[in-house]
């Protein structure tokens, strides 16, 4: 093994695959224990990993727990060590990081796996004349059972010497081919705007990927300039939250001094500063290149208290980091988008204003990246959701949209990003459409667990709970998300409308439905607005919406129940909506 310290993202990805493995699938206690130990250590709380705290936090023991008479922690730690050894000797033999719990304590240790095949060596295996065909299945052509999605592909591991031999063969091959190409095209051919990716493809090096610049994401740093317990807690929450967002690259150090000036245009920094009053902490987001303050929030002592700090930081990060947030808006206004950030901006605009035009713009942009072998899981998770949107709302593009294709995109997204909240959310959305409420909730809950600081993931989980018929659980979650985020997708408001209606709070349902007025291209949104207007006693508006609904969606108006059943709404929600539409004047509602 190499003794360099693995990066935090690599540790998290290994942990997620380990938890989803067959080895650990038989022991819920072992899964809970290893997740707790790794997450606490990664959060900088290794000093808390003592037998007493583990017994209380993991195994539900109370304050009377006596480790001298109750050996539950020691016994479970021993079993965990055995399972880890078994996993890394079999299923996890090719993992890039190995996790161990050294005897005598409970703090995890990590090491890089020296026998893992380097990426460049893999390239040589693909392009060399004597290379064997790849045994990796074509993800785009196979939709497998979701239970197997996170299982790593285990291949025979060649010797280290053989790896190195392939590595140097690859380097020599690439250098030789580039030399030939330069001679053919002239010495300046590749340096004055020639298409390197296309040139390599012409040379037969189809395994060489295009430059990743088109998929670059904004870089985000932290600078802690305040001292004290509250400031440390705020900074720790910022770090934990930033590491979970797919839409940025978080640089986990407290300085920006070593950044590359060439990337400063798309670099941003969160400053943690003393606030104006004693006990206050100021959080500011700035552009590194210009120093412009894009967001500034003052947290009082109550806001940064242990019970509140996660919600406070979640609100800040959800305002700043998603594709409809402060950073992406700044990139668009400054004209410094990459291919991926441009696509994500279009994607965010679709969910704020859902219609065929905004949908096609977002889909075509992401589709172009996918056709050029995009490496970001975001490309495929958002294509999965947009594919399903095309199925639901019968958009003309793409012309052959199916749920199966959406599932294929989601499958690829999870394989490429096993810890991606967006990828898991896309899977949950698809299973919701298929009417499998249990699977939908499982995937949505996982997305929420992967990033509890992202209010959009909380909203998706709340929405899934509502449309699984669990209104009392889902409605408060979605209501809190709507309250925190003033700029949010319209589907949040529709979910909140449905939840409040089923809980009997018709006034809140009417308020939620009024937020759907910017979108007139969905029959169920217009139906919600009609019901809300009737509840609020706005008879003139109700008549106008009734005429609009009947004219634009005659099929829906003739039989709204069919649409709700097709969308897999819970039976009691379907009955309530049909009855409310009938009361609002939709005479044929049945």
Short description:
With 590 residues, the protein is an alpha/beta fold. It is 55% helix and 6% strand.
How does this model look, in words?
The chain is an alpha/beta fold and 590 residues long. It folds into 4 domains: 8-112, no CATH class; 119-133 and 157-208, no CATH class; 214-321, Rossmann fold; 452-590, Alpha Horseshoe (Serine Threonine Protein Phosphatase 5, Tetratricopeptide repeat), CATH 1.25.40.10. Helices cover 55% and strands 6% of the residues. The strands form 2 sheets. It has a 5-stranded mixed beta sheet with strand order 4-3-5-6-7, covered by helices on one side. A two-stranded antiparallel ribbon has the order 1-2. A hairpin with an 8-residue loop joins β1 (97-100) and β2 (109-112).
């Amino acid at each position: 093994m190499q003794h360099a310290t693995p990066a935090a993202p690599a540790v998290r990805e290994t942990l997620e695959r380990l938890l989803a493995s067959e080895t650990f699938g038989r022991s819920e206690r072992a899964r809970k224990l290893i997740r707790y130990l790794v997450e606490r250590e990664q959060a900088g709380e290794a000093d808390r990993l003592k037998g007493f705290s583990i017994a209380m936090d993991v195994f539900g023991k109370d304050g009377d727990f006596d480790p001298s008479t109750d050996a539950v922690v020691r016994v479970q730690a021993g079993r965990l060590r055995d399972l880890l050894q078994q996993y890394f000797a079999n299923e996890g033999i090719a993992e890039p990081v190995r996790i161990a719990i050294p005897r005598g304590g409970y703090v995890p240790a990590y090491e890089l796996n020296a026998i893992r095949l380097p990426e460049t060596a893999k390239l040589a295996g693909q392009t060399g004349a004597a290379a064997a065909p790849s045994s990796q299945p074509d993800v785009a052509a196979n939709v497998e059972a979701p239970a197997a999605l996170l299982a790593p592909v285990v291949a025979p591991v060649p010797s280290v010497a053989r790896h190195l031999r392939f590595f140097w063969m690859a380097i020599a091959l690439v250098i030789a081919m580039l030399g030939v190409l330069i001679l053919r095209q002239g010495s300046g051919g590749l340096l004055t705007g020639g298409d390197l990716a296309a040139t390599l493809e012409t040379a037969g090096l189809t395994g060489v990927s295009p430059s990743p610049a088109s998929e670059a994401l904004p870089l985000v740093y932290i600078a802690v300039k305040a001292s004290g317990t509250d400031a440390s807690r705020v900074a720790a929450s910022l770090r934990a939250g930033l590491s979970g967002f797919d839409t940025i690259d978080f640089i986990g150090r407290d300085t920006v001094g070593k950044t590359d000036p060439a990337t400063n245009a798309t670099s941003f920094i969160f400053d943690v500063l003393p606030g104006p009053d004693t006990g206050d902490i100021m959080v500011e987001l700035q552009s590194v290149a210009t120093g412009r303050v894009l967001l500034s929030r003052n947290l009082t002592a109550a806001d940064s208290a242990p019970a509140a700090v996660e919600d406070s930081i979640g609100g800040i990060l959800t305002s700043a980091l998603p594709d409809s947030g402060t950073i992406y808006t700044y990139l668009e206004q400054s004209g410094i988008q990459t291919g991926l950030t441009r696509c994500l901006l279009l994607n965010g605009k679709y969910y704020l204003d859902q219609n065929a035009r905004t949908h096609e713009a977002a889909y075509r942009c992401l589709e172009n990246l996918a056709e050029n072998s995009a490496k970001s899981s975001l490309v495929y998770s958002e294509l999965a959701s947009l594919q399903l949107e095309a199925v639901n709302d019968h958009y003309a593009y793409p012309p052959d949209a199916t749920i199966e294709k959406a599932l294929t995109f989601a499958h690829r997204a999870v394989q490429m990003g096993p810890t991606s909240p967006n990828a898991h959310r896309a899977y949950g959305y698809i299973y919701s459409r298929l009417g499998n409420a249990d699977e939908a909730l499982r995937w949505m809950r996982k997305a929420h667990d992967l990033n509890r600081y992202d209010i959009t993931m909380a909203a998706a989980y709340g929405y899934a709970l509502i449309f699984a018929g669990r209104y009392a659980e889902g409605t408060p979650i979605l209501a809190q998300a709507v309250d925190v985020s003033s700029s949010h997708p319209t589907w949040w408001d529709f979910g909140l409308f449905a939840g409040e209606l089923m809980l009997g709070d018709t006034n809140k349902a009417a308020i939620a439905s009024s937020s759907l007025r910017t979108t007139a291209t969905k029959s169920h949104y217009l139906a919600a607005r009609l019901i809300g207007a009737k509840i609020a006693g706005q008879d003139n508006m109700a008549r106008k919406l009734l005429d609009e609904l009947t004219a634009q969606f005659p099929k829906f108006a003739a039989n709204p129940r069919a649409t709700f059943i097709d969308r897999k709404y819970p039976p009691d929600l379907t009955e309530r909506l049909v009855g409310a539409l009938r009361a609002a004047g939709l005479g044929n509602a049945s």
